[in-house]
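seq/struct pair 1
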Amino acid sequence: MKALFLLVFIGVMIGVGIYSKKKVKDTNDFFLGGRNMGAWMSAFAYGTSYFSAVIFIGYAGGLGWKYGVSASWIGMGNAVFGCWLAWKMLAQKTRDMTHNLDVRTMPEFFEKRYESKNMKFIAALVMFVFLVPYTASVYKGLGYIFESSFGISFNTVILGMAILTAFYLLLGGYVATAINDFIQGIVMLIGSILMVFFVVNNDAVGGFSGAFTKLSALDSGLGMVFSDSSRRLSLMSMIFMTSFGVWGLPQMIHKFYAVKDDHAIKRGTIISTIFAFVIGVSAYFTGSLGRLFFIEEGVAVMPQGNADMVVPLMLEKALPDALLGVIVVLILSASMSTLASLVLVSSSTISIDFIKGYVKPDLSDQKTMSIMKVFCALFVALSYVMAVFQSNTIVYLMSLSWGIVSGMFLGPYVWGIWWKKTTKFGAWAGFLGGGIVIGGYLILEKLGILLIDMPIISCIAMIVSSITVPLVSLLGKETNTALIQKAFGEATIEN
């Protein structure tokens, strides 16, 4: 039964890719879906890119084990701050300014908003290099769940998923991704609700009241709705990083470039928030129950000593075979959309920002799209290699990616769309401030000096970036008036 669900899902994805191929005429269609995506498509594309195997396997399992039921606050924070507030604050401003400046990528945005080709170059380089670990973390999550559920080797699973992602993405680009995201989103909603129901009602848990009682018996802090003081700072850093980190991630902001109009943005805000609440809370609450399935002589023992195996092995114990097939498809759904988004924005950095932007500005649209497809395949291959040979946990890999990318981009991007007085030097200060925080941490890590966890460092990088941008902007020369008027749509620039 599990295999049947999987085969049907793969067949649908391939079918959508073939169907979407007919709708892709140029790079604008391939990368942005013609900037014509409605509310449901945009909201589900945002939500499914947000939640992947990284959340369901790495974060839900590892953080649920660490914090208990209070880990559910991460899912709530993601819904309120990562979706509702993000759409409210960023969606319309992003759509309007990217239209006004005629930009398709975040590096292009930095170049035209701040009149800096060097900023474009650095942004593109950071995206291509540091989104690879994020993609690798998604592959690792998929590998664990398939290895546990189907007995297929970790490397074989990752290779198969890499090939599948490349296949349907190369055929239909963002159009295929958006249609698949909508289908995958429906699977995720239904699967998440069923997952919570069966896990909670398993004998090991004993219902909602039993869950709180049994977790508290293992450790009083695990059954607390509000985390105890020893875990509070760490938990708050996870809420902050996973909620506000998406504000600076190119693959998430990309969804706002493609949304059709203001009406779609208003509806998409509500849809994405509800979606994120159901998926996020379901994932983290389920993960918090993991300890109850691995008790030996009254003590919870982490399976294989690996937090990334908690959820796969728990689901194998708690769910009937047919439902396990649905959940596997759920996690595959969440991951495929995230992978496609990451691959699209990363390949664009080479084809649009580097080659067309620097090497050959007169490159035709069709050749640009062909080059983008080549680098889509290359990025998938690099991510596969890193997933196979990188031994770090999923949480670490994702925190590293979010820390460096959001740590550098968050301040310059958010201030850039909201504040007219944001200057090039202010933006550079945000870039460097966030980058130095993460770079310094990595150096200390290599030296064996680890003072705090990677997620906390990621939060610090984002805060530093957000503070330095306005401070330095106030000290420097303002951006030229004509550019500001064009960016904010306040006047027509005359030649």
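seq/struct pair 2
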Amino acid sequence: MSVPQIMLIVLVLAFAVWYLVTALAPQNPTSAQIQAGVIGSRYTGDCLIVRDEIPYNEDTVSSVRYVAEEGSYVTKGTKICNVYSTSYSTKEQKVLQDYRDQIKEYQIKLLRQQVSTDAYMEKLEADVLTRAREVRELIAGARGNMYNQETELAAAIKKRQERLRELYVKDQRLSRYYDDEQSQLQRITSWTKQCDAKAEGLVSFYSDGYEYGLTMSNYSEFSPAEVRAMINGAKPSDNLSLKGKTTVYRLIKDGHWVVLMLIRDNNWNPVEGAEYELKLENFKDTMVRARVLSFTRTGGELEVQLEVMSDVQPVMYIRTCTGVLGDNVTSLMVPPQAIWTQDNMPGVVVLDGDYPFFIPVNVVDKRDGMVYISPIQPDTIYEGQTVKLFW
């Protein structure tokens, strides 16, 4: 075989290889669709919770008997608790119970000595037994309202006592027992104060001492250094003299609270009025929407004051915690090959209709193999449009 023939065969084989490669190899796409994407930043920091709450205290408190349930919603005038002064002792209550036991024993004796039965008294006795049984059933797990059931039982017992007084109103011994009971009640009452709710709100019998000096009316006055000190455990000073006083309960208004957050990224510039997602990391994480009220940057600390308009119950017992503040911004994204620069302006070439056209854009971010963009002129590009790719 001559040299020219060999060269011809080589050329034919090279052309065949080139044809197969170009024909069978995958081609780069010439277009892509604009997609919706979300970009966001996260800022971690230490948080100080400020609630819209008022603490109530009393002097010379010996003990407190709570009536309202912890965390329940109360209205103005609702009975919260009974407060006993230091002059009161449990011995006084024992004396009262001894008098009542004497009354009970003597009443039973009188009833047994009675010849004729009293139909109304028997009905009242049956009512007391019925109400008592219903209370026991609730304690055992039956469904119902314990407070209402106990109120009905107390009312039934009171009616029975009133009937007994009517039946034996002339019995001098029983009258003397009643007088002893009343005198002891008056002694105890003189050392007892009933506390009623001064306003509506959620009631709590737990206090951490911050409620007096850190309020919704003064939180904006604290510097980042003072906030840091409170986060580290230093209680804010207050103008009230609490010596000898005991915080009995606090009332918390629902639906509005504030977070003072010391951001660890000191280079971040918050936007006042902007809303962010706030995650409070505690025993049970809480996720809320928070609005930036203001921010202060001094002494190497960035303090951001955040307003939260949501349920206060998740933070009723939290004063400090770690928080993560995030801004999730909806954006549009395209492959890097879709960005075309024209007259020093980045943009995309939209394939819509018979003629492609150039739309200038702002490049917001580049991550995960995509370019996040926003149009310079609003509403000029949108999700689902086809753009040209440049390789």
